[in-house]
Amino acid sequence: MKRLYDSELIYGRLMRVDEPHLVARYNKALVAFGFKPSALEAIDVDRTGFSPQVADELGDDNYLDPNQVNRRFIILSPRQAELPVVHTAFSNTAQLMFEFFSRNRRAIDALTIKDVIYGEIEDTVAKVEDIEDLLSINQVEFRVLSAEDVLGKAAELGRLADRLRQEPEAWRNDAMLERMVGLAKVTGDIRENALVPDQVIFRHNAFWTSHFGGLYVFVDPDVTTVISDPDAPGFRRSRPWQVSYLSIRDPERVFDFLLKSGRLDLPRESWLDRSGYLEHRAEMVVRGLIRKVDPEADLNRADKVWLQTWIHGHADQIKRDGAFPFLNAAKREAAHTGQIDLDEVEPQRRFLVVRAKPDHPDAWLTGRLISDFVPDDFVSRYVFNKQGFYRDYETLSERWRRHFVDTLQTTYLRDKRAFRQKLYGLTD
User: Is the pLDDT of residue 187 over 70?
Assistant: First the structure.
C-alpha cells in the first residue's frame, strides 16, 4: 500500500492536523469515544475525522465505525467539508456528512473556533444482521456533542437570557447574572454566533454497503431494489411485497433494472465520439488480457504502439476472449448508425458500452455497480469503487501494482475533474 499512499491513490487530499491545540481537541473526542489519547503529534483526517495514522496506532480501522453502522465523526474545522471520506461501510456517508456541513455551516464555523464537534450518525439499527436491518434505515440523526460542552452552555445561556427578558425581577439575581457572564466567556455572544446546528435529521436514500460482501439499495417511488449476493441473509425474505431482489450474479436482470429505471446512458454516437469511452474500454480490456495470458510482459513500454503490437502478436487470444473485437465492432456500428443495438449483445458485455446517466441522482452509485461487471477497467473501478480497487490491488504482483499506479497517474490523476467530465459526463 505504500506505493498507493505515496501516489495519493489512498488517503489522498486529507487535512493535516499538527497544531497542538487541535491535536488535543481530537484526543478529547477519542477519550469521549472510550479510546486512549493518541501519542501522535500530527495526523491526517478525512471529512468524518477518520485518521489512518490513528487507525494504525489503535490497530482498528473501524474505530469510527463500530459494527459498521452508526458512524462516528470528529470535526475540527469547517475545511473538512471539502475532504473525501476514505473509510466507510456506506457509500452515502460522504453525502450525509456534506449535507450536515452545508446545512449547519454557521454553527460549525462558530463551534470549531472554540471546541471540537463529535458524535454519531445514528439510525434505528445497532447492528446489521440481515437485509431487513439495512432496509429499516430510512433516516439518520446526527447526535452532536462538543468536548467543552459549548453546545450545552450555549443552550443554558439562551434559557437564562429568556428568563432575563421575561421575568421582571431576574436582573436582580446576581448569581444568575454571574453565571451568564461565565457562560458568555465560553460561548461568546450567542445573538451573533449560531452555536446550535439547525438540521440534524437527514434522509437515508440509495446506497452501497460493505455488509454481506457488498450490497446495493436503489430507491424508486414504487419499489426499493436490492442487488446483492443471493446468499446474503434476508435475501428475498425481507418485505418481498415492497422490495425487488436481484442477484449480482445475474447481469441480464441487473442491466434491465438499470435500463428501465432510467439510470443508464445508452451507447449513442452523440457522447461516445467525444468521450473516447469505447477506446478507453478497449484499452482496459487489452491490459486485462495481458495480465491473464502474459503476466511477465515488460509493462514499462506499454504505450499505445506497444499495445497494438501486442494485440497483433496475440490475435488468437484476442479472438478467443472476444471483448476487444466486440468493442471495435460496437465503435463501427455507432459511427454508422449513431447507436449500438444491445438486443443481440450478451448481458455481461452490455456493461462495456454503457455508463451511468450523468444527471441522475444515483450516477455515482450506478457507476460503482457497472464497475462490478467490468473489473478489468481498473481506472473506472478506482474512480467509482475504491474499496473494490484496493481489494483487486492486493492480489496483484509487484509488476502489475506499479503498472496500475503508473496508469492512474498518467490518466485520472492528471486532472480528475476533466477526466470524469470527458469519460463519464460527470460535472461534480
Answer: no
What nine digits make up the cell of 392?
Answer: 483487486
Dist. CA 47–CA 381, nearest whole Å: 22
What's the whole-number mean pLDDT along residues 102-128?
A: 89
Task: Examine the pLDDT at 337 and tell me if it is beyond 60.
Answer: yes
pLDDT surpassing 90 at residue 148 = no
Per the DSSP assignment, residues forming a β-bridge with 44 are: 16
Angle between helices 105-114 and 150-166 (to 10 degrees): 110
Q: Which domain holds residue 84?
A: 2-148+195-203
Residues 294-304 have a mean pLDDT of 84
pLDDT over 70 at 345, yes or no:
yes
130 with 141, same domain?
A: yes
Residues 239 and 358 in one domain: no
Q: Rg of the chain over CA atoms, in angstroms?
A: 26
CA gap 226, 137 in Å, rounded: 14
Distance (Å, whole) CA 70 – CA 427: 30
> 343 with 266: CB under 8 angstroms?
no
* Burial class for 422, CB neighbours closer than 10 Å (0-12, 13-18, 19+): middle
Q: Is the pTM of this model over 0.85?
A: yes
